[in-house]
Amino acid sequence: MAEDHSKRERWIPVGFWLVYALTRVGVALRGGPLITGNDDLTRVVQVRQWLAGQSWFDLTLYRLHPPDGVAMHWTRHTDLLLAGLGMASRGEGAERFAVIALPLLLALGVYVLVGTIARRVGGRPAVPAALLLLLASALTAQQFAPGRVDHHGLQILLLLVAVVGLIRFERPAWATVSGAAIGTSLSVGLEQLAVVVAVIATVDILGLRQPDLAPGLRGFGLAMAGASVGGALLFAPAERLFGVACDVFSLPHLVAVAVVAVTFVVLSRHRRAVVLASGGVVAALAALATGPRCVDPYTDVDPVLRELWLANVAEAQGMGSMLTGDPWFALAVIVPGVVALGAALWWWWKAGWGTGTWFRLLVVLTAAYATAVLQFRAAPAATALSVPVLGVVFARTRDRLDAWPMLGRVGVMLVVAVVISGLGPLLVGVASDGQAGPGEDCSVAGGALGGLDGLVLAPMDLGPDLLHGTDADVLAAPYHRNNEGNRLAWDLFLGSPDEADLSARGIDWVVTCDGMAENNLLVREAPEGLLAALLADDVPSTLEVTDLGGRGLTVYRVRG
Asked: How far is CA 420 from the centre of its chain?
């Protein structure tokens, strides 16, 4: 009987996921663009290029700032998943299925892992509570919505796998799984580098405090090194490992991972603090020596673009800027974070300040939210990691209210759920100004431009949509490696309408979109510039308005 009950409990995460998946698929099928995120659009373009014959190891986006294109800082991990889910057949229906299925399958893994962590730290009652909060977490749910096919969802899944392995580190197999997940995450991208370092530091401390964990230390270190290097070799150009690149897994990171792996192998045999200290210091110094510029991963971005563009990218901003620009959206991250960190700290104290589950979760959570404070793009991962802790808070609060009347208990728990899930601030934001989160005022739809080809000058944030929905090449897109193309596009838009010799630069079309936030930056910087003139319907003689466009888009043909 108990065994049957346990088997049924395993299906609880699947049940919650089905609610999420059916709701999201219903929204996706109601119409409108399925893929709206810039990175998601460009990801699909990258997969199309590969399936059309471009080399697996060639990650150059040739239609961006042609003819040389831009070598993207991504890998093929997500590309392979999309191809396996149907894009390899290269039909429109198969592509649509793949971009719906991939994030939902990743979400299934997230639901299972959140349930696993919640049960480990809070027992059975915490599982449905955590899954309910995950279902209510708009920020995390958005990351796994149909059409969200970039690598961020995969990285969140890998971090949760690493945490499951971390809290079960006493079992060598799980320690090895944790190391493999961390290594794979590093090879996919460096956005969660601080969290990765926190996991490694936690493993270091566990190794010092618990000598019986030696097999796990070896397994973690070797699996991390193997997965990171193997992932970099199998899913990206191998030359990255022999050069210095600050935005991808490259030589500095390879050296650091190798030093850490050796440290763990040595630590598993000689449990001395000097091993821990020297290993960490040597790894940091080795990484710094091989890539001193990588203290700032955006060090190579053009100074003008850095000041006018990168400083205004919402996901690259810190929490302080988000609080000023969109306070309710920021509070949707801050409130759950404060509750989760406070609860984890409290229960770590109650557990006697040891190196058990609460210590391990607290270190990772602290690193995740510290990263989110510095760059808001890390907020979905931090929120996902906090949900199991919030589930324990919810379940134990409910237990304390057992003596209350049913109506009062339900009312209080509803308030608690809305507050600690972050849904409350989002709802207040919607009620106060009609939107929640940093949205784009313009409905971009490059697909409406049909057979547009040639080279297009457009604001950066239109670039991915034009690449995805047309056969055209574009000069600019919101990627920091496209320094020359982005700077040229902005120079043209900021320059005098009468002096912009677009035809001589090989530009065939100019596309604008009235409601784009990027417009405000360019017009404020150059109120007499080309873009300001076009938005004011003051079209220079070198351009003619066409009947193409739609959904806020205006298309101009460049006169030869």
From this structure: 22
pTM above 0.85, yes or no: yes
Both tokens assigned to 267: 């630590």
CA distances from 495 to 502, 515, 532 (A): 11, 21, 10
Three-state DSSP at 70 gives strand
Residue from 491, 525, 530, 486 nearest 512 by CA: 530
pLDDT, tens only, 477-524: 999 999 999 999 999 999 998 877 898 889 999 999 887 888 888 999
Q: Distance between CA atoms of 247 and 298, rounded to whole angstroms?
A: 8
CA–CA separation, 314 and 376 (whole Å): 7
Buried b (16+ CB within 10 A) or exposed e, 34-50: ebbbbbbbbbbbbbbbb
Residues recorded for the chain:
560
Residue-wise over 286-310: b if at least 16 C-beta within 10 A, else e? Answer: bbeebbeebeebeeebbeebbebbe
Residue type, 161: V
Query: 365: Cβ–Cβ under 8 A, 6 or more apart, which residues?
Result: 337, 340, 341, 344, 382, 385, 386, 389
**What are the residues whose beta carbons fall under 8 Å from the beta carbon of 232, sequence distance 6 or more?**
75, 187, 238, 240, 241, 249, 254
